[in-house]
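Case study.
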Amino acid sequence: MSQIPAELKYVSSHEWLRLEEDGTVTVGITEHAQELLGDIVFVELPKVGSALGEGEQAGVVESVKAASDVYAPIEGEVVAVNGELEAAPELANSEPYGQGWFFKVKPSNVTDLDKLLSAEQYAQEIGA
Amino acid sequence: MTAPKRTPLFDEHLAAGAKMVDFAGWEMPIHYGSQLKEHEQVRSDAGMFDVSHMTVIDITGADAKAWLQKLIANDVAKLGFEGKALYSGMLNADGGVVDDLIVYLTSYGYRMVVNAGTTDKDLAWMEQQKAGFDVTLNVRRDLAMLAVQGPNAIAKVCAVKPTLADAIKSLKIFQGLPAGDWFFARTGYTGEDGLEIMVPATEAPAFFRELLAAGVAPIGLGARDTLRLEAGMNLYGHDMDETVSPLAAGMGWTIAWEPNGRDFIGRRALEAQKEAGVAMKQVGLVLEGRGVLREGQKVVVDGAGEGVITSGTFSPTLKHSIAIARVPAATGEAAQVDLRGTLTEVRVVKMPFVRNGKKVFN
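After joint prediction, the assembly is written out as follows.
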């Protein structure tokens, strides 16, 4: 079934987060999310430098089937976006936890991560 | 809730790795991995669709022809020889579309194929219109139906059915070939060449496997929708329904006005609409930038009013979004679509968008 790497954090709107060594947090959509969406054909990413509140709309992902908002799972400033993903949106289908990442934020408060779902909790959430 | 129905090919879909969904009360394959790859497969080679959920109705009786001339807006008198097919709307008295269908002339009368989601209401409507006519309807649930579509579709079917190859190859567009309990028609819903094949349910799984072995890939409902949309073909319940006139849904060509005296159901309503001027028309929309046009989005036409997208998608062949829309009759070449809160410029074009693998609009 769906891959849910144990070392990542999750939110119920199907984004994953990874705390990097430099203190930034990488955000993407989960394997389960890309399965629900089907073939992804466009992504819209936030602007580098923009400040995002927790739960704020950060982008859009459009598949052949539907358009879906991507939310900021944590408060912070966008420090990088995945330009490769804009050019090749199918990466979110094929490598949702790798080259298909969406954006990186510098979190306002890194301890906010502790409040998010563990892999086990997310698996329960999606009934996996 | 009743459990969804299964076609005779259900087990074959699972074996081929299908993701199954509920569609009009049927458990059907939405894709077998990637909708985009399946779309490309049909445009470039050959794919097969299980369309056994659609309903085949055989029509017999001394009044079959006269009854069909009343029941549907196109005229079965155009069917000059056995196997010939006709596309038509079946209208209500207000001129709304009860369903769209294909009817074939057969040795025993006629064969009609109607949509899955509308079958119950279609049959009830037909029963209601039968009074006074010597007509018998026979619903052929003993048949399965496979659409094999794509530039190599006919060659691959012929490879599987060598004894019928010559007869199948000689079929012209919109023409069918009865062969025992089987029926091969050169029709489809993709804008590619191909066949729709009716086959006894018990023989369908083996035929499916033979086609698979011949290099015909199974294609899900997802790609069926993007293919038909590129081909500019209507989907019932989306591009038209009982509240929409065929004149506002790009179906004007399916209405046989001659002979004048043929009083088909809905004729008077349509004549009144023509007299008053039809307010809306069907067009194609093209968005070459980012974003995907979706069903239900509002279309704004400067100086002419508003319309609505009735089907929209990302076109895998064109790599941008396309849509079918119902817009004010005065609409020219430009319009705007409310794309998630942003009015976005789109081009208005004549459909189809794609035919035989190639872009066809300007």
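Observations recorded in class. The CA atoms of residues 57 and 71 of chain A lie 4 Å apart. Chain A is about 20% helix and 35% strand. We will return to this complex in the next lecture.
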